[in-house]
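Notebook B, p. 112. Complex prediction, attempt 2.
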Amino acid sequence: MFAELHALSNFSFLRGASHPKELVAEAARLGYAALALTDECSLAGAVRAHAEAKQLGFKLIIGSEFRLEGGPKLVLLATDRRGYGQLAAFITLGRRAAEKGGYRLLRHQLETHALDHCLALWLPEDAPDAETGAWLARLFPARCWIGAELFLGGEDGRRLAALQALGDRLGLPLVACNDVHMHARERQPLQDTLTAIRLGKPLAELGYALFPNSERHLRPVETLARIYPRPLLEESLRIAERCRFSLDELRYEYPAELVPDGYTAIDWLRELTRQGMAKRWPEGVPDKVRRQVGHELELIGAMAYEPFFLTVHDVVQFARSRGILCQGRGSAANSAVCYCLGITEVDPARLDLLFERFISKERNEPPDIDVDFEHERREEVIQYIYRKYGRHRAALAASLITYRVRSAVRDVARALGFSPSRIDTLARVLDRHGVAETLPERLAEAGLASENPAVRRLLALVQMLVGFPRHLSQHVGGFVIAAEDLSHWVPVENAAMPERTVIQWDKDDLESLGLLKVDVLSLGMLTAIRKALAYVGEGLGRPFALADIPPEDPAVYEMLQRADSIGVFQVESRAQMSMLPRLRPKNYYDLVIQIAIVRPGPIQGDMVHPYLTRRAGLEPVSYPGPDVEKVLKRTLGVPIFQEQVMQLAMVAAGFTPGEADQLRRAMAAWHRKGGLEPFEKKLMDGMRERGYEERFARQIYRQIQGFGEYGFPESHSASFALLAYVSAWLKCHHPAAFACALLNSQPMGFYGPSQLIQDARRHGVEVRPIDVNHSDWDCALEPGDSPVPALRLGLRLVNGFSSAAAQRLSEARRQSLFQSVQDLATRARLDRRELEALAAADALRGLGGHRHRAFWEAAGVEAPTPLYAEPQFAEAAPLLRKPGEAEDVIADYAAAGASLRRHPLSLLRERLDRRGFRTAEALWQVRNGAIARVAGLVVCRQRPMTANGTTFVTIEDETGQINLIVWPATAQAQRRALLYAHLLAVSGTVQQEEGVLHLVAGRLEDIGKWLDGLVVKSRDFQ
Amino acid sequence: MSLARAYHSPSLPAEPPCEVPPAEAAPLWLALHFPALALEALGAAASEPIAVTEAGGGRLLVHSASAAAEAQGVVPGMALAEAQALCPGLTAVNRDPEAERRALSRLAERCLRFTPWISLDFPATLQLEVRGSLRLFGGPEALAETACRAADGHAVQCGLAPTPAAAWLMAQAGFPAPVLEAEALRSALGDLPVAALGIDDKLTGRLARAGLQVLRDLWRMPRDGLARRYGRDLLRRLDEAAGSRPQPLRQFHAPPRFRAERELAMETEDLTQVFPLVEVLLAEFEAFLRSRDAVAAELELELRHARAAPTRVCSRPRRAGRQAGQFAALLRQRLERVALPAPVRGLLLRSADLQPFAVPMADLFTPEAASGEAWDELLDRLQARLGPQALRQPVLRADHRPERAASGNAPRSGAAARSPRPLWLLPRPRLLSKRDIRILPECERIETGWWDGGPVRRDYHVAVDGAGARLWIYRDAGTAGPWHLHGLFG
């Protein structure tokens, strides 16, 4: 029997060639007594190994390998919880002292850092230094061993004898260990490749940097018995015996300071909930809610989750106090307590909640509360957390960056010595098509023979490498907050961002240990809503808040039913737009459905069509039984939400809530990993037992499959629908304020400034151009000719102009308006590049005349000299041609992506008319199935993965947008026009149905040249 | 610094730049521009989709594309990745400036019959001063046509104008009508886009944004204003095109070649009689080289026979040189190994590969600077005596595979130095036939080399045979297969 005490997984990045899980499974299969996972200065893989070991009932030891600066190399193993804390803190010490990804530990730190609950294995180099050994023996009395590692190196006997002599001299026992880098011999090519990637050299140049053979794998015990003397193997068992720590012992202790004196945590939470309840329902709490709150509090208390709720409540309170909009989403919206605490906004009385999705006793998994904050102000919230708890107690969860096909191909191909242009080709081909069956043809197309041995080696290695961890990055906003020092609990390291630290575990790790994190996320729409509310308030002359927006305004729904939704949260995408006139949302709950139904899940599960026909009354709504009716009534018998699938499994197939949740997890993962099969049988059997038809059962199962990872929970959709309604209300009643807020919150959402501006103009908003004598950095509302304010575009829309320059400009203008380009340059301290950016955006029109002239002036501006504040030049007057309208329009698009002049298409309209092209507006008069020709600027191209290679293109002319459908064959044949044209002429078949219009493209033509032709050589000087 | 020596960067010995060609009348320039030179220099076929690439901004960009590639939308300046997306079968080749230079100078040699005064100073272009040749070749159009025909096998565009810059502009733009008088230049060139001046894209863009798109627009602007905004260089280019400013060009000369022959007074098979004559020719050769400050990298001696194909002996010294003695010694050693098919009756000595002489920059503090040359001389002599293939230098490579690490008789570095290696490695391992050997238990396993088609998976042992010799043997790793002998310990 043997226990391996020195094994590296692929979390020793670019060294280990096996996943932690593979190491554990292989060690268990070989009958090892235990395995120590000892990644280099890291515990990042420990949780994964632990999960596998737990499942197999195998003993895992937690340790880590270190190379101290100036030597030696050693392994430290944790004996108990205390030793584990010491080890984690020691890793933190090394990691925090180095840049992201590295570590730095000095010899004396081993002396000063408390490690008295750890065991040490010294791994001497070729010529062992006895003094180092003596030093370690002193530091770790009776806890230090010499690790003997033999790999059929040709002189193993001499090496062993030397170590034995050394051990005798120092009184240190020897133990056999194997510097394991892979679970099986077959990984040697991958290990060599990782070495090449790590050293940044092709394999052929690595020479002795590679291991000479593949002996650093988990070798069978019989093999080891031939290599090592028996006592050395037995010693490993004695060491393993002393290491009794398991990650299961980790208990998360939440910060205690959130509970005032005299209260217990649960009492305080109860009190806060009671206060919130009174605020939410001043007229009295509905019974249903009161019961729900009671049930939830009971569960929260039983699971000891109170501090978690209190923490989130505290963060949300802080944001509110600073006027930062925030809203919880996700499964937390299923919790009435969260609603009472103000964490979420979805009234539990309005929804059929599924609290089991949020917290369940049998799962013993932490609840998940995601809170969105305004994206421009989330940093304030993060800084608050750091301030309140201190950096030693708060850190971000890690996000594990793994190899994807593209990065794997690049690195492997470089290691194998492919030329840079080959690497480009390979990465492109493989990225697009994956390592699939059609790959040989794809490679042949790119001029690479897949039977070429080099290409075959590459493919095999890439397949192994994909999914390997590459480095730790920071999670978008998942905070871990500890009662005491976090580093005794999990190692903390530096993130790439200065002043940020991350723990070595990601959210899957935290979840699998049952540990809590608080998600502080950012959402652009919240920023836009807060700004729009402020603009509306300014216009009204009084504060205007979210609560002032009236609910269920019919005008808002009428607008949405017309698919007039550019800028509206969640329902502005093209797919959503084509669904709006079909679904015709009439109330809040319809919006909840609208958001959830345009998702790959329901689309692939074939749920959209049945729902629409039932809603239109074209098909009777029926249910296979009363239990099912209860679950599916609100969606007319068609499961649309993830929760409904889980409830169906419970009522129709007899799943327990916990099982239903496992089903949800399996659904989320099956596309990647499979694993739905056990549920299939249980589901089918359960439904059959309860008397449901085979056909119905099949259909439900297929829908579950279709849902996959894309299913949308109702709780999520319910939170989003609130924001969708608010943004739609603002768009409907305050289009100028809404457009202004969206423009000032860019980048966000589905559309760029050009579309937003055009949409505002179509809604009657007067839009005024960027002008250095009127514009500030942000877009702003100005008194208009009508009671509706006008929208003045801001300098933020000028490409290549900075906010600092805009600041200087606004300050200088406060003294007096600018008189000339030179005056502007001098007083606002703008350089030539900044002036040219303004000229390009035509923002100098008020000073320099037409654009050509503005450029000439901008180019001629001189820096002020000490003697003359404003340098003067006597220069002959230039003869500059005035740009034509088309030139100006094209330049507008180039500089700001938008133009307030005529739409480029209207410049071409005469020519288009002659050739029988229709406008977007006139297309509606074409009967279904007829052929029509249109032309427009390409706004976006999409190829969603649910569409089997179909490309969706949106083009735009002066009257509106046209949606094109391009089938794969058409796309293939006319690839160039499809991929590269900015201005596209299309003839195709009109498809008009339920207020939705598509043009199925037949012929595509790039007519960009037409615009160039417009740039007439007019000889109009001024 | 122990940089042993460095050399001046080579460029053929050029005549000093000549301000203007010596022409009685005002010069007239014929510019022959070869737009596809980069492709043609690489011998690429236009019918294949090929792109010549060069690095730019950290990426590979298309420098020029074959007709087949252009038909699929590949255009110069495009990123290679994008070009490959458009044209899936595209072959990418790196640009070879040296090949382009050679191709251009071959073209120049062909054009020497139109005028002695040619310049290669413009990219992918020959500038021919042809005022004096007009009559001889039947006028400007006919001359241009004949000159284009001389560039057979190359795509060519020509321009004829009183200044080289204007001629070049016109050639670039594919301008058909020649301009003979400087006064007519401005109106002829006015509609050319400003980019034709050879300014970069950034400046072109800046000019375009002020509405300055063609040369006429520029001529209309105040000169000081233009210079202040867009730099004096723009004015210089503009003036050169208009002929209001002369442009110095360097004249092309056909690369020098040496060729000298002698008839023998009487036929002989005795080389000792031939050799004095060879030395005479070599002395001439040395004088030729010295007068041009050049060295030769190659020298060929042809022995002519009455009724047999000539015998050729070639000498390629390790280091290009010009000393008759050095060449003589090499040729003598080669000649000694030659069997003559017939008596010799004439000699021809020639050399085409001449290079500029570079003074070795000796390190002042390393007196043995010349030892490198002495070593080279020794190698030359050995190779001349034994033939070029007979000499091998062991090169040590870091590789776990013993045969790749080459000879084991030199110390190796690093971790692998621990395990024993025999002094003599067999050129190829062979099956071990001896039976009476004792195999020592210590095993060295080598498994590596999977990436280059030479994978090795072996267990090595040391064995002692009956005579006490120590052998280095192996068999396939982890098997009980047959033993192979790979080396002998000294």
